[in-house]
Amino acid sequence: MDGDVMIAGFFPLNSLGIDHNNNHASRPEENTRFIFKNYQFVLALAFAIEEINKNPQLLLNLTLGFEVYDVQIRAWTMFKNPFIWLFGKYNIPNYSCMRDSRSIAVLTGPLGITSDQIGTLLGLYRFPQLTFGSFVHVLSDHHKFPALYQMAPKDTSVATAIVSLLLHFSWNWVGLLNLQNENDLWVLAELKEEMAKNRVCVAYELVISSQLISHIFKAMAGYNEINKSANVLIILGDNDSLIILIIGIEQLLTKGKVCIMNSQWEFALKRRYFLLGSPHVPLIFSHHHADVSGFTDFVKAVNPSKYPEDIFLARMWFLSFNCSAAVSDCVTWDNCLCNASLDWLPGHIFDMNMSGHSYNIYNAVYAVAHALHEMLLHHIEVQMMGIRKGMVPFHGQLLRVLRNIQFSNPVGEQVILDQKSKLEPEYDILNIWNFPEGLQLEVKIGKFSPYALHGKQLSLSEDMLEWAIGTTETPRSVCSESCGPGFRKSPQDGQAACCFDCTPCPKNEIANDSDMGQCVKCADHQYANIQRSQCLLREASFLGFGDPLGMALACMALCFSMQTAAVLGMFVKHQDTAIVKANNRTLSYILLISLIFCFLCSLLFLGRPNTVTCILQQITFGVVFTVAVSTVLAKTVTVVLAFKATSPGRRMRLFLVSGAPNFIIPICTLIQMTFCGLWLGSSPPFVDTDAHSEHGHIIILCNKGSLIAFYCVLGYLGTLALASFTLAFLARNLPDTFNEAKFLTFSMLVFCSVWLTFLPVYHSAKGKVMVAVEVFSILASGAGLLGCIFAPKCYNILLMSNRNTLHGFRDKSRSRRN
């Protein structure tokens, strides 16, 4: 198409085929295959230029035209058409003066190798080159390619997009397949980093060299690795380098594998690979772009009569609709259907929708137009003789303007040529529907936007996603199944982080979510449920009056205290009798009163502990039992003194008459109170909790504070009991009237036995049982004193009243002697 300013396009429209019919070398022109899908590049270029020429707001009086050249990916033919375009048909370098040419810019692509080779040539003349293929890092070096601009956005977020998809489906065990080239290695490095941050592991990695034979052998060698565990395979690479490998690998993959490809696979896979009717699930990331209004209608209207100079369209029409038996006759189009259109072709042969590469061509043409328009508006002094037909700007001036060009294209999207200022691309996620087999329908099932809020960047319509034929469930790709609540992940030695064992949480620790690396310990006021999935509030536990055990102990304490009070009342009633008077009536009263307090002090151990009760428990227990035991000691001393006082010439009568045994009680009690005072002054008892002894309960108890002080109080009490027992045991057979030394001996024996048993049991018990043991020991020891000392006396007072007098006792003695 002619114009005041021309844009040249170098597109791969033919590929070399193989002649199977003769063994002699044939001419390349006779052995090429037309690439239908790439012809959309020409149509995108023509559509953009026609749209610009119709726009009165652009280019003022200038019109754009274009010329298209075929370029092949072989070193010896790649430069053929670029040389003809630059230097004429004689191919003499620098023979044709570029200043006389109307060409202003060149479009190359889609492969990076094509843009690289042609860009090296164009860079010598500072001729503006715009590439429409995928972004290639090598081409971004402006020192090597000073006149080259890439229209495609840089894939800065493709790694994040792929990992977001993996996380959405909980795939953390994936395989990698890529080529050994610089561009793939850059994407691969970012992908691995993003996978590591999100705990996605690489099950295997196959790095394929660029040699075809190596492709095949490497694929066969990796068969076991590809199929052994991971059901997801991420494939990175360019179209032509891996297409043969993918066709071979397709036969190696087990059914149901999910293949995730980056945007570079947009064309090759969906038209070649999936044409085979693959049973695998393709998920393709393609650069998102807005729909260009009018392009589909433009393509439908294209035919050879509209563009008679387009030899590529003529060949495409002939191959598609078989217009005539001879190629030369196609110029007349006598046998072509008058209403033939490109939309008659199957979708896998020719796509009516504008592809990503075609969209880049569309933007490239508009970039050139806006740069030219800016030059005209600002009257930049370029080497031109006037703005009129036949006089065009110099391409070197256009190159300087292109560096800073920014504009909004007709569909409203921002276009920026400067690599540093380019916006991050959004991605469409495509799925190929192949049911019924051969449908090959490309369906958009989701989108990834780096500009959305974190966690909402990926959007998917899973109901539109077609898994492998015969499969309805989402494939799984994990090394180890998830650990449910109550279990933690335990790494396997020598394996990746995604491979682990599930270990139950220890006691009182939980894992309330799946795949937790560590269990969380419950707080002291909480406990773990049986499933180890949540912490529950502990129920406060103490030996209360409402507890059956506490109620039984309280009843026992009250019964014993009432019995002791009854005995005291009986002794007061019969205070003038011989039995009551024997061994010091006052001491008996003191012992009975102290025993009442001993029984009642056990009630301090029941109920919810507080600071007051914790202090009173130990102090009251220590003091009242000291009074009781010291009273027993005083009674024992009284027995001994009474016997000694009856012997002639003894001075013991003076101690007995003076009431010396009565001083034993206050002295012993004062010493015990001194110990208790030191205890309260140093480290008094306090309220404490025990969260470990009883599952599901937090026991509220009294901490002894200073254990040394506690054992000093208990040890002093034991010393008094041992002294009373020893003295009573020695005086048990003294022939005195109403001698109660035997009863005192038995009472101290019971008392010492109870507390000697108490110590080991007390230390082995926990929680409420420990308190119950102490209360029971108090009641048992008090009952031992009450029973052993006063039971025989009560028996004589109530049932043997004749023995409760001195006269009765003497009569009994005489009868025994007779």
UniProtKB/TrEMBL annotation:
Q: Where are the transmembrane segments?
A: 549-568, 589-607, 619-643, 655-680, 708-731, 743-763, 769-791
Predominant location: membrane
Which subcellular locations apply to this protein?
Cell membrane
Membrane protein topology class: Multi-pass membrane protein
UniProt keyword terms in alphabetical order: Cell membrane, G-protein coupled receptor, Glycoprotein, Membrane, Receptor, Signal, Transducer, Transmembrane, Transmembrane helix
Its GO CC terms? plasma membrane
User: Can you give the residue ranges of the G-protein coupled receptors family 3 profile domain?
Assistant: 549-813
Q: What is this protein called?
A: Vomeronasal type-2 receptor 116-like
Q: Which gene encodes it?
A: LOC105990256
